[in-house]
């Protein structure tokens, strides 16, 4: 089994992504654009949610209308840049439960070490959507998903804004059951683990830090 990768190549998404990549985009612009693209990514990643029906009254008639049923969602934000995708996903599904995983990247080994793991108990039964804008080496996503599986999660998907081919391959190999949704797969990683052409450090750009 190989995890599916969905690239959301809608012109609006691609245009907004280009605006975000620009060096001169401010944090406010970057945040707004990530939020907007996050709505499209969530729309795509959740397009197979099962529907049930409820009887409602419209002003015109009674109607057996479709509603999302049966699937409870948990969003997991990988700190800190995951916060930029959490907000739009919560706009789409306000009732989802939320967890946070803190992973710090060692700039020499590029390996993640965990400093926070706070997830709701529902991860064992819910559809769990892991959020991190940048799938670079894949180390953070692989570690976060392994930790979630260790906590009992069985049904996991991953949403990112940008991926490197190396990160996609590594995540697919480590977790072939986890579908990936992204806005683009860039050319490569550079020798310090940044995505090329990329957009720089997503956390710094989101929060205006350096
Ligand atoms: N994390 C980022 O924020 N940017 C990259 O290019 C790679 C990892």
Automatic annotation (TrEMBL):
Allosterically activated by GTP. Residues 7-209 form the Phosphoribosyltransferase domain. GO terms for biological process: UMP salvage; uracil salvage. Pathway: Pyrimidine metabolism; UMP biosynthesis via salvage pathway; UMP from uracil: step 1/1. Uracil binds at residues 195, 200-202. 5-phospho-alpha-D-ribose 1-diphosphate binds at residues 80, 105, 132-140, 201. This is Uracil phosphoribosyltransferase. The keyword Glycosyltransferase applies. Its EC number is 2.4.2.9. It is an enzyme of class 2 (transferase). InterPro entries: PRTase-like, PRTase_dom, Upp_B, UPRT, UPRTase/APRTase. GO terms for molecular function: GTP binding; magnesium ion binding; uracil phosphoribosyltransferase activity. The gene is upp. SUPFAM superfamilies: PRTase-like. GO terms for cellular component: cytoplasm. It catalyses: UMP + diphosphate = 5-phospho-alpha-D-ribose 1-diphosphate + uracil. PANTHER family: ADENINE PHOSPHORIBOSYLTRANSFERASE, URACIL PHOSPHORIBOSYLTRANSFERASE, CHLOROPLASTIC. Belongs to the UPRTase family.
